[in-house]
Amino acid sequence: MSSKSAVLGRLATSLASSSPDQPFAARLCRACVEILGADGGAITLSSTKPERLTVSTSNGTSARIEDLQDVLGEGPGQDAFRAGHAVVTHVDGDQGGPFPMFTELAGRIAGPLTVWAIPMHPGGVTIGVVTLYRAEGELDESLDDAQFLADAVGAALLDDHDSNGVLAFAAWSDRARVHQATGMIVAQLAVSPEDALAILRAHAFADSATLDQIATQVVERRLSFTGTDQGVSRREASDDSSRNGDQ
């Protein structure tokens, strides 16, 4: 994976290929597992607070790993939330390390594996954690790409009235243009309006832009989701030239 646009393109492709009957968080979780080549994963919000909520798990093993962290009050997900950076834990039968109880019991549940806990902080505020596991080998993509994907998923999960102080999304104002752009993405990718809005949010995060700015690019056809490689969005060449001409 060579660029942010490739990550966002694969996210859009995964959402487009998933069943619209599945919960939104479940489709995002599935996308993380697919894109990063994990065996399973989970998305958890507010990972160390009393209101900690696992919003989606990809399979039974992921669910049991998250339950284990809840019961023990320790684990890579909780550490990643507190520290604000990715935490990688190897479960290989050895006791000790930063999470002795977790590694011992997780090994009993799933055998040897590696767990990656990646915080979602799309505006500087950590809102939760994407946790992934794999029995053998590394993730298919770099940790930097995995972090970008987690932040993009966090941006997609934020609602319009988020009050966590995420300034990058505070200026979303022109709802009519956003609705129009959402409709255009629905037509281009054959996804649900919810998924289309998630794609807009992910692009806004990636470009450090407001939702309305990204929607404007879609409405003016400077940002398109058709005729692309693996669903990667494409900006017309006129985008940069027109922007430079306005300066």
Question: In words, what does this structure look like?
Answer:
By secondary structure, the protein is an alpha+beta fold. The protein has two domains: 154 residues, 2-Layer Sandwich (Beta-Lactamase), CATH 3.30.450; 73 residues, Arc Repressor Mutant, subunit A (Orthogonal Bundle). Helix content is 49%, strand content 14%. It is built from ten helices and seven strands. The strands form two sheets. Strands 2-1-5-4-3 form a five-stranded antiparallel β-sheet, sandwiched between helices. The chain has a two-stranded antiparallel ribbon with strand order 6-7. Helix 7 packs across helix 9. The protein is elongated, with a radius of gyration of 19 Å. The two termini are 33 Å apart. The C terminus is likely disordered.
Outline:
The protein has helices at residues 4-17, 24-36, 60-72, 76-83, 100-110, 143-157, 175-189, 193-206, 211-219, 238-246, and strands at residues 40-45, 53-57, 87-91, 113-120, 128-134, 223-224, 234-235. With 247 residues, it is an alpha+beta fold.
Count every beta strand, where a strand is a DSSP E run of 2 or more residues. 7
Mean pLDDT: 79
Class derived from helix and strand content? alpha+beta
Order of helices and strands: HHEEHHEHEEHHHHEEH
- Main sheet summary: 5 strands, antiparallel
Number of separate structural domains? 2
In CATH, what is the class of the largest domain?
A: Alpha Beta
Which band does the percent of strand residues land in? 5-15%
CATH architecture of the largest domain: 2-Layer Sandwich
The CATH topology of the largest domain: Beta-Lactamase
Query: Termini distance?
Result: 33 Å
- The helicity comes to 40-55%
Radius of gyration over all CA atoms, rounded: 19 Å
